[in-house]
């Protein structure tokens, strides 16, 4: 994963973080000072693909927490947001269940995760 930014004097800063997994999507949450990255990993032994939400410190890029999605579940999207009646910040992840016999996924989940003290906790989920 390579993350870049431009400071006030227009100097480009780039940092590469070895993951050992394939990064797919990323979201930043200034309130918790974290990045959440959706990743996938193919097992060398079983050749099965697993999907994760990984939480990183936004300064040191240290891995703080790793949340594994269910078997057969793939990540689709991620955003950091807050809700009208709750000022707290959340990561919202969209997923899909890919079954071999389906051309397109027929169901998925929306996960609402809270980053707190270096951990991700599931606050709410809706399957459909």
Automatic annotation (TrEMBL):
<protein>
    <recommendedName>
        <fullName>RSE1/DDB1/CPSF1 C-terminal domain-containing protein</fullName>
    </recommendedName>
</protein>
<dbReference type="GO" id="GO:0003676">
    <property type="term" value="F:nucleic acid binding"/>
</dbReference>
<dbReference type="GO" id="GO:0005634">
    <property type="term" value="C:nucleus"/>
</dbReference>
<dbReference type="Pfam" id="PF03178">
    <property type="entry name" value="CPSF_A"/>
</dbReference>
<feature type="domain" description="RSE1/DDB1/CPSF1 C-terminal">
    <location>
        <begin position="51"/>
        <end position="127"/>
    </location>
</feature>
<dbReference type="InterPro" id="IPR015943">
    <property type="entry name" value="WD40/YVTN_repeat-like_dom_sf"/>
</dbReference>
<dbReference type="InterPro" id="IPR004871">
    <property type="entry name" value="RSE1/DDB1/CPSF1_C"/>
</dbReference>
<dbReference type="InterPro" id="IPR050358">
    <property type="entry name" value="RSE1/DDB1/CFT1"/>
</dbReference>
């Amino acid at each position: 994963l390579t993350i870049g930014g431009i400071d006030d004097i227009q100097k480009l800063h780039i940092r590469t973080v070895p993951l050992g997994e394939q990064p797919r999507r990323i979201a930043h949450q200034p309130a918790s000072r974290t990045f959440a990255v959706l990743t996938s990993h193919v097992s060398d032994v079983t050749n099965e693909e697993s999907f994760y939400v990984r939480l990183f410190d936004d300064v040191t890029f240290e891995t703080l927490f790793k949340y594994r999605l269910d078997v057969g579940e793939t990540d689709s999207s991620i955003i950091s947001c807050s809700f009208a009646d709750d000022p707290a910040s959340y990561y919202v992840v969209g997923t899909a269940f890919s079954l071999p016999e389906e051309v397109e996924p027929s169901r998925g989940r929306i996960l609402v995760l809270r980053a707190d003290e270096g951990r991700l906790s599931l606050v709410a989920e809706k399957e459909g």
